[in-house]
Amino acid sequence: MNNFEYVNATSLKEAAAALASSWTDAVVLAGGTDLLGLMKDYVMSPKRLVNIKNIKELGGITKSGAGLRIGATVTFDELANSALVRQGYPSLYAAVMGVTSPQIRNMGTVGGDLCQRPRCWYFRLGHGVLGEKDGKSLVADGENKYHAIFPEGRAHFVSASSLGPALVALGARVKLVSAAGSRELEAAKFFVAPQSNEAREIALLPNEILTEVVLPAAGKNATYEVRQKDALDWPLVTASVNLTMKGTAVTAANIVLGHVGPTPRHAAGAEQALIGKAVTADLAMAVGEAAVKGAKALSQNAYKIQLARVAVKRALLEAVGVKA
Amino acid sequence: MQGVGAGAGAVSVLATPEEAAAQSSVKSLGPAAVPVTLTVNGKPMKTAIEPRETLLDTLRSKLDHTGAKRVCDRGTCGACTVIVDSKVQYACTILAIDAQGKQIQTIESLTANGKVHPIVPAFVNNDAQQCGYCTPGFVMAAKGFLDKNPNPTYEQVKDGLGGNLCRCGTYVGVRKAVLEAAKALRGGAGVKGASNA
Amino acid sequence: MPNYSWPPMNERKVMGKPHSRLDGFAKSSGRAKYPSDVNREGMLFGAILTSPHAHCTIQSINTSEAEKMPGVSAIRVTAPAGTEIQWAGAEIAWVAADTEQHAIDAMRAIQVQYRALPHFVSEERKSQAGTRAKPAGEQTTGDVDEALKAADAVAEGYYAIPVLAHSCLEPHGQVIEWKGDRMEYWPSSQAVSTVAGDLAQQLKIPASQIHVSMDYMGGGFGSKFPSDIWGAECARLSKDSGGKAVKLFLDRATELTIAGVRPSAYANIKVGGKKDGAITVWQSESWATGGFTGGGMPPIPYIYTGIPNRRLNHAAISVNAGGARAWRAPNHQQACFLTFAAIEDFAAKIHMDPAEVLVKNLGFTARAPLYERQIRLAQEMAEWKKLWHPRGDSGKSHIKRGLGIAMSTWGGAGHPSECRVKINPDGSVELEQGTQDLGVGTRTVVAMVAAETLGLTVPDIKVKIGDNSYPVSGPSGGSTTVGGVSSSTRKAAVHALEELFQKVAPSLKADPANLEAVGGKIQVKGDPSKSIGWKAACQKLGVSSISATGKNDPKNPMGLNTQGAGGVQIADVSVDTETGVVKMNRVVAVADCGLVINPKTAESQVLGGVIMNICGALMEERVMDETLGRVLNADMEFYKLSGIKDIGEIVVHMDVHPDNDKRGVIGLGEPAAISTIAAISNAVANAIGVRVPRVPLSPDHVLTALYGKNMERSRA
């Protein structure tokens, strides 16, 4: 990795001041589990790292109205050990435990998970987030079995965020702070599909710090990850659901697919089919089918469409406690 | 503190005068080597490092603590596992400069001062090593796991060591070793070869 | 001639009893120093510039900027302008600097202009290989066309098994330091006694100037025999830096890209035969790559070599990729998979239990009675009668369970080995051997043999290995080590003991030939009343130690070791037919063995072989990009290895019994590492009702087999 200067910020103000208007100048360092690998591979070579782990106000999981406020430097392990998370947000807990390495859970943070960069191997080899060579996508006709079935424009990578699908399904908001002030965004809007190699896959600006995630009260929620390995590995497809119920009937539904496209994907059309109904195995399967409508397989990843169907079905059944 | 300098010089592109003004108050370290003190196995150790050095490389190359191994160097395989402030972590993915002020425990601590932690002989008794290159990482992952799960089930052992990989195929022995060490640590049958059970 | 033969099975005091490995504590405590752990005063670090292109020529190379970088002490170019590069990752230039980061900084500052040339990396597409496909020539026995016509049933299938990377956890590399014209060399190697000679040839210096030290090494699996170009360049960087120690190990991406792979194999196979299961015909058209130089042919049909009508066509395909190296049981996993998958498909076609088809045709193998016994034993252990079902689990659940079976064969005779046993006047015993421990437990095994022979206990033996100043022992490959080192140790210990008997005999007023060493004493055979304690006996040596050597000669192992191991494995899997995820329930391994010296480490070898191939069956594969000609998963993230929870349960039966024991020692690390992939593939076919032609059995491949490439059958 290239050398850089290191700022150990102890206040948000100090951290914000140390950032700049370009990613090449300064980048926030939290758990480091993604950033250091990117730097070792020279995919990112910022001139300055700003450590935010020692900023007290960025930590902690606290009740916030009917919901929860989670500081950006809260680790996966802290989430896993939070009774508030386990009890109220099993979908988030499942996503946390889907990271099956205790070491990563001890190091990785909520903010870092949301800001991590794609695992696309073309990106990691230096061909940009779009994975292109001479203006042509390496992904489309290349090795794409882990890539998008819902590509957005030129973006064929899949969002790597483990928590993203659950947070989007739960209607979370994220707070972004810069030296100039702060703003809040829906988690759903935090993820974007870049259309150039200079653009990022998140709405965060280089001079901003993601400081916290706020969750509203949740309905019945669950996450199902299709995983090839039990040991540390990326899910092939994730589905996260959050259902508002009246008795056994669904009154509102959020269904979000992960690892299927450059952003966690809201399966809006599929949600309608649930309204006013009780979740049964047959209905869950139909909703899973609706959730993959419009999916577009690349040369090697049609199987992910099948996985997405099944993940939605299983997440729905798990949310309402029906055995598949 | 030595090595602290105004870091504005390293950031070349500043968009606005406000940013430039804010930058001038930022205290930064490096990029040249800076002196650090790392607390390794309870002992303060002084060395000089560039900010880009990982804890693993510092331990191995500067402090001659070579028990932790560099294998994937990308936070995947667990061969570099150390315990930092009571939590198992990948030393390859921690900046040494970030580890200042923390309690860094390496595998060398398990057989120091004439004492032997029961997890070590449990690995020997159950032949939980072949080439042995992944073993220190597994031992430390197991130590960290048992610190938090003193009475684990067989299934929990498998979940607790999901962050380590072995190429020779020693997993069967590792599973048994962790259960044997757990028993010893709870005061059950001692592990042959342990001295502080 | 002394009697070297092993003590009878029931009289052994040390051998045959489980013993924890002597270096277990060093390894489990992190105290063991591997070559990559060696730190020397003032040590420099090396870095390698490698080619980003799969096929190119070097137009120009300029190191002047790099030379000015901080800390740089030496730069060498091994691929100067005009060099044609044949694979991505090929070495171009080398840097030594005061820190590793400085070496990498300087390496990145070297300016190279490449002229890209067309490359070919996708050997599965044989039709596109053109002249890169080298046909081996047709081999025919019998009348294949007639046999195919006459067969009651012919199973026809396509089978594919990919290139794998050894992925040794300790990467290839070494530390080298010059002291005058002498060199200290700490390689991570499978060949302590021969690697210096190999390096000397590269450097054109006398091998006698190179001292090799290697107490431990972090995995080789067949890929760490030579000193390699990185050995020679490390030596030259050190020399160019005034002899200072240089540490140069490959980074993980380079390790996976150029430090060794297992060849792939692809085949269209027809197996035909009679309704009663008798196989009459085999026809295969296979191809494979071992990298740029092409590579060899898997030995098919595997084990069932006597099928009367056979037609084999094979092509070796040259690709622009790092070369193949020996792999734990070279070409056997591929041959085993191709053969046993095809036979299982034939069994399914005639609706027969595949185990019965295997038994029915054992006449075509070299070890019919042994295999039959092992098949039956494995079936019993795996609850075959209860759990096996005709192809396709008919249960209602989307989780389908299945069993699969496959067999292995291997040599495993001892390699050439010499051992020195010293008995000192203070009673201490030293054992010296220029061998190495790859994880087999070499130290423990030779200590057990020496202790058994000398009537002592294992802790009484001080074992010294991993140094080329000790007597020469062969490289560790082909499961030849334990046979070799145990036999030479036995002979050396017998010779040393004979000398001791000579010294002691007068005091016991006995004929030296009538003495024995038992329980820490030298005594008249069968008469414990006429004895002398070990220490007292050794005191009779006065001031001079006994130093005796013994050799294993593979041409005449004198019954101490031999070759020829069978083995049978059965896999038990559950497949989620909605997701294609395969979970291991159990692998049963009947491990053929001869005389087992240390059951504990022997069983670990079998477990390791099975686990390595669970990885190979379920998730490992090298992914090459056709456009870039580069390995996309040269890491441990997408080059997937099983973790501790991914392997299910493994039940090992070491086939120890008097008949096998009489054969002497037979290597068992490789036979256990052969049949797991085939057994798992067969188990998946048994579970889901169709063959997944491609290994690994990853969700994409499983679902494609079930539902078609575009999942067109998934909603049926």
Brief summary:
The complex is a heterotrimer of chains A (324), B (197) and C (716). With 324 residues, chain A is of the alpha+beta class.
Radius of gyration of chain A: 19 Å
The helix content of chain C is 25-40%
Topology-level CATH name of the largest domain in chain C? Aldehyde Oxidoreductase, domain 4
Q: β content of chain C, as a range? A: 15-25%
Write down the overall mean pLDDT of chain C. 97
User: Strands of the biggest beta sheet of chain A: in what spatial order?
Assistant: 4-5-10-8-9
Calculate the mean pLDDT score of chain A and round it: 97
Low-pLDDT windows of residues of chain A: none
Record field, number of beta strands of chain A: 14
Distance between the termini of chain A: 47 Å
Shape by Cα distribution of chain C: flat
CATH class category name of the largest domain in chain C? Alpha Beta
Task: Give the termini distance of chain C in whole angstroms.
Answer: 76 Å
| Residue share in β-strands of chain A | 15-25%
The number of helices of chain C is 18
Structural class of the secondary structure composition of chain A? alpha+beta
Task: Outline the structure in words.
- The complex is a heterotrimer of chains A (324), B (197) and C (716).
- Chain A has helices at 12-18, 35-40, 76-80, 83-88, 90-97, 102-107, 110-115, 121-127, 164-169, 187-190, 268-272, 281-291, 303-319; strands at residues 5-8, 26-29, 48-51, 61-64, 67-71, 132-133, 136-137, 173-178, 181-186, 209-215, 220-226, 237-246, 249-258, 265-266.
- With 324 residues, chain A is α+β, with helices and mostly antiparallel strands.
- In chain A, strands 4-5-10-8-9 form a 5-stranded antiparallel sheet. A 4-stranded antiparallel sheet of chain A has the order 11-12-13-14.
- The termini of chain A are far apart.
- Chain B has 2 domains: 36-107, Ubiquitin-like (UB roll) (Roll), CATH 3.10.20; 111-185, Orthogonal Bundle (DNA polymerase, domain 1).
- Helix content of chain B is 30%, strand content 16%.
- A 5-stranded mixed sheet of chain B has the order 4-3-7-5-6, with helices on both faces. A two-stranded antiparallel sheet of chain B has the order 1-2.
- The relative contact order of chain B is 0.13.
- Chain C has 3 domains: 9-22 and 413-552, 2-Layer Sandwich (Aldehyde Oxidoreductase, domain 4), CATH 3.30.365.10; 35-118 and 172-249, Aldehyde Oxidoreductase, domain 3, CATH 3.90.1170.50; 261-411 and 563-707, Aldehyde Oxidoreductase, domain 4, CATH 3.30.365.10.
- Chain C is 27% helix and 24% strand.
- Chain C contains 18 helices and 29 strands.
- Chain C has a 7-stranded mixed sheet. In chain C, strands 7, 8, 9, 16, 17 and 18 form a 6-stranded mixed sheet that branches.
- At the B-C interface, α2, α3, α4, α5 and α6 of B face α1 and α15 of C.
